[in-house]
Amino acid sequence: MFQVVPRWLLVATGVLLIPFVAIATLPFIVQPSSSPSPPAASRPTPTVSASPTIIAAVPMDAAHAGTTGTAQPGRAIVVKDVSKDPLPKNAQQAAAVKRGAQIFNDTATYAKEYSPNSALTCASCHINGGQQMGALPLTGVGPQFPEYNTRANRMFTLTDRILDCFSRSINGKRPAPESSEAVAVATYLMWISDGQPAGTNPPWRGQNKIADQDLIPIPKLDPQRGQQMYEQKCALCHQANGQGSGQGPSAVPPLWGDKSFNDGAGLARLYTFAGFIRYAMPLNAPGTLNDEEAQQIAAYVLSHDRPAYPTKDQDYVGVKMPVDAVYYSQQYPQNPLKR
Length: 339
Description:
The protein has helices at residues 60-64, 91-105, 107-110, 127-130, 158-169, 180-192, 223-233, 235-238, 270-280, 291-301; strands at 9-13, 16-20, 44-48, 54-59, 76-78, 147-149, 154-156. It has 2 domains: 9-192, Cytochrome Bc1 Complex, Chain D, domain 2 (Orthogonal Bundle); 212-314, Cytochrome Bc1 Complex, Chain D, domain 2. Mean pLDDT is 82; it is low at 1-74. 27% of the residues lie in helices and 9% in strands. The chain has 10 helices and 7 strands. It is of the alpha+beta class. A hairpin with a 5-residue loop joins strand 3 and strand 4.
């Protein structure tokens, strides 16, 4: 049974203590978040509702078919804006939320020390400040930590997860857990999660996933065919050379090469990346690519070289390595997509 507790309960995130509003009783937090993939018909895709502050959930397959749906009760993200929505009354907490939002949306500017070589921001993958349906939304995710992380084969705090994103997804330097940058991002993530219960994953989490029965075995994927699809569907924004364009919050991120995510990032896993493409891209028409297109494009993108994460040999120790971890020499002597 969940129980609402007093406002600004302190929730432990490793060495940090992050204030959070109206979460469930603490014992429910320490639960792994692995759950089976939901049926395709229940997966949400983004559409804009009548209110500009709501991104509503409708079945993803409906978007692929070119139709629209209506929001289901309890299945919508309320999008929060630090410039408009109420911040914590405590001035230090409010400042941390604002700074966290800046770091999240323009990492290279506001956390330059930890992202010196990357053209990516947190919002490159977690679009709209981590509040976009179908684009790895983080609303309601903070309260679910600590939770089990398969790659590390241990329990992760929210801070652990943030630090991993700096070192892997942004291909930057790992901040100290107690750094002002890590504290700010964690505080921001808890603020956008205000009102979401701990112990129960929000319905929009884990939806960027292609159903197991629709996965194409890696040997049957064709990066050359994926290149043709990429040139038709993706190159207009990400460029034919995959290097994207621009800087800051409006930048189109590079998909391979020295400025992109490294080979230890979550998106360096083929089916993970394909799930992101399937439901988050193209940015102006998310959900319009089908399962095969998303996988073929992912195969092409991940056939390229990218920065090497230095300690990949310490990943998946004692657990089964996912078959789509194409950059791991423990599993593949060379990337199976480089043909």
